[in-house]
Amino acid sequence: LAKTTQPISMDSYEGQEVNITCSHNNIATNDYITWYQQFPSQGPRFIIQGYKTKVTNEVASLFIPADRKSSTLSLPRVSLSDTAVYYCLVGDLQGAQKLVFGQGTRLTINP
Amino acid sequence: DAGITQSPRHKVTETGTPVTLRCHQTENHRYMYWYRQDPGHGLRLIHYSYGVKDTDKGEVSDGYSVSRSKTEDFLLTLESATSSQTSVYFCAIRETATYEQYFGPGTRLTVT
């Protein structure tokens, strides 16, 4: 399973765009990149998933360069409610999909 | 919430006692997972199941056993609880069509 590295913490302000980058240098050919969000006292919640280039949904965008050794989660116009821990995971979607969570990035949004 | 419930939601037990946590799902998903989360750590996979009576170990399986006798229930047992097993335990299912994992509300276990 590919190991991921992401910043331990980030701070931003309401209305700003926030970009969280994840490094995954040993990503395998069949691996997808998935981001989860976790609020205190809750289980993680799926945000977005991609394989290459760009993926966008109603919540976020995911940018993946051609070499796929990193990825960037982009949250547009954040609000206080986006304060959470964000996890980047890399793995094959087939089979049991044993997710390996790192320490995640603790994002704090300030007024 | 993908129809996932966990019971109990909170439990305090003494060292050396057996404890069983239950995860129940209502949507017939094949894959189910048990994770633990400790302060300052991400989630760590304990065991997972890929069908009735089909289970396998995760990264922190020592001291834990699991059983899945029917699709909807995945049980996690601590045969003899230790203080190091004080944690929040999350159950998850994997959605077949989208590969997303959905997590239950968690069980906070304290071993004194």
3D architecture notes:
The complex is a heterodimer of chains A (111) and B (112). Chain A is mostly beta strands and 111 residues long. Chain A has a single domain, classed as Immunoglobulin-like, CATH 2.60.40.10. Chain A is built from no helices and nine strands. In chain A, the strands form two sheets. A five-stranded mixed sheet of chain A has the order 1-9-8-3-4, with no helix packed on it. Chain A has a four-stranded antiparallel sheet with strand order 2-7-6-5, with no helix packed on it. The mean pLDDT of chain A is 92. Chain B is mostly beta strands and 112 residues long. Chain B has one domain: Immunoglobulins (Immunoglobulin-like, Sandwich). Chain B is 0% helix and 56% strand. Chain B contains no helices and eleven strands. In chain B, strands 2, 4, 5, 6, 9, 10 and 11 form a seven-stranded mixed sheet that branches. Chain B has a four-stranded antiparallel sheet with strand order 1-3-8-7, with no helix packed on it. In chain B, strand 7 (64-70) and strand 8 (73-78) form a beta hairpin. In chain B, 34% of the residues are buried. Chain A binds chain B through residues 32, 36, 41-46, 49, 87, 93, 95-104, and chain B through 31, 33, 35, 40-45, 48, 50, 56, 58-59, 90, 92, 94, 99-106.
